[in-house]
Design goal:
202 residues, alpha/beta, Alpha/beta knot, 2 domains, 7-stranded parallel sheet, 7 helices, 7 strands
Length: 202
């Protein structure tokens, strides 16, 4: 591996945000998952949880270039909601779902610079399920003024993550490493191996 490539990997890892993750509940379209993954990579979110309790486990996340984001992320797949949320609770302070309800808070009122947070997005047809909303800490909405009060899941996730990135940049979260040395070293070794294998395969 060239020094330039090594420095690039290290630079990316030093900006990964270990206090923010995305959870996708029963998202049907792998292309949507792939688009969410690309946004996660772009803003430095390393972990994504894919929870499938009503649909089969995904084998692929969309075709070609979009799916390439998956290999740079830590993807956790679950078929049991309780097991998924037990792991989330062990790592994140708050779990918020996207849901249009009377008690939902505005996206721009979420403090992404304080504590750690997991954001749950539901499927394309019915959103986050009642089961998941019942075990989360609250709901949030993306403010809209149009007639159609919904966004495509990948768009909603991108809007949300870029607001999180804006707040975290102001708070200096991208200015210093947030991962543990052990986690960073593990990912660095994994990424190096992936690149070496890609080089060998042409």
């Amino acid at each position: 591996m060239t020094p330039e490539r090594y420095d690039r990997l290290l630079s990316v890892l030093n900006k990964r945000q270990n206090d923010l993750c995305i959870v996708l509940e029963n998202v049907f379209d792998p292309h949507n998952i792939s688009a969410v993954m690309r946004t996660c990579d772009a803003v430095g979110v390393q972990e994504i949880y894919v929870l499938n309790t009503k649909i089969p486990r995904h084998k692929k996340f969309g075709p070609r270039s979009s799916s390439s984001a998956a290999k740079w992320l830590t993807v956790h797949q679950f078929t049991d909601a309780a097991e998924c949320f037990a792991q989330l609770r062990s790592k994140y302070d708050r779990i918020l779902t996207t849901h249009l309800s009377s008690d939902a808070i505005d996206l721009y009122n979420i403090d992404f610079a304080a504590g750690s947070i997991a954001l749950v997005f539901g499927n394309e047809h019915s959103g986050v399920s009642d089961e998941i909303r019942a075990i989360a800490d609250g709901n949030f909405i993306i403010p809209q003024v149009g007639i159609i009060q919904s966004l495509n899941i990948s768009v909603a996730c991108a809007v949300t993550l870029y607001e999180a990135q804006r707040q975290k940049k102001v708070a200096g979260h991208y200015d210093k490493r947030r991962m543990s040395g052990e986690q960073l070293d593990g990912l660095l070794d994994q990424w190096k191996l992936q690149l070496d294998e890609a080089d060998q395969n042409g």
